Amino acid sequence: xxFTLPPYVPPSRSVEQYTRDLAAYxxxxxxxxxxxxxxxxxxxxxxxSIAVLGSDGRYxxxxxSPIEFCVYHTQQAIPTRTLQKLTxxxxxxxxxxxxxxxxxxxxxxGINQYAENPQRIFPTRVTDSTLVYGSAAALDLAKSxxxxxWIGPEGKHLLERVSDKTREAKRxxxxxxxxxxxxxxxxxxxxxxxxxxxxxxxHHLSFKAGPLRLVQYAIARGLxxxxxxxxxxxxxxxxxxxxxxANTRDRLTYLAEQxxxxxxxxxxxxxxxxxxxxxxxHISENAHLRGQSTVPxxxxxxxxxxxxELQQITEKIE
Length: 318
What we know:
Elements: H1 15-40, E1 49-52, H2 54-57, E2 69-73, H3 80-92, E3 102-105, E4 113-114, E5 117-121, H4 124-127, E6 130-134, H5 137-151, H6 155-174, E7 178-181, E8 184-187, E9 189-190, E10 195-199, E11 204-205, H7 211-227, H8 231-243, H9 248-257, H10 264-289, E12 294-296, H11 300-314
Parallel strand pairs: 2-3
Antiparallel strand pairs: 1-2, 1-6, 4-5, 7-8, 9-10, 10-11, 10-12
Helix pairs in contact: 1-10, 5-8, 6-7, 7-8, 7-11, 9-10, 10-11
């Protein structure tokens, strides 16, 4: 099995052009994955959803980060042969694929959890999943049950955990990139000095740690809070989660058009800022591949203005 990534042009152009090129690149990645999986499974995989997660699912990934799969299924256990085939694909290109395969039985509680750990709450892993092969039924059911859990007995706990993540991302954004991680002070970026650091082995994550995660978690928290306000809101939220685009900027626009989270003008501005910081993040990622952990940030005063407005708009998401 020989899976290769399509050509990628690094972020050296305008934000708008890079964002369009990046979406096209990710669409081509998804199409190549579909064809590879179709060959691998000989077109026989009807009741399971194979999806990509995170930046892959959002059409926002550069080739610097590995592709991660999640298998959504309704059986008690995924057939051994299925796991073997996917494991074979992952191991065939370890520089391209994340080494762990996530599997979610959508008939079991804990859809919001990662690795069935109630202390690791990541609803964004489901909301940001995009189908690349198989039936959409299991993934759609997972998204539906995700929202059901938000209003269920564990809903308050789930909201608290996502609120914690949102606050932590905000702290990083408002402290100019500072964070204490495992008792050790680190700095993801410093816009006073005009630098950003990406060194994942030492948990330096550039602008992923502050502005990007702040927007991602603020959207999730806003949807969770809306769902918990009453029966009508619950059905509105479930419909939105099932229908909203995967891409962050497109998602903000869609939700605003549905009367959710933000006014259209704020949604548009927030999406523009998000794409700007995603470009800066990818500059850091690509530099790290070349052995350079810290990179300069062009026009840091402009970046500070964008970051400040991004923070202000996320405060409006309720």
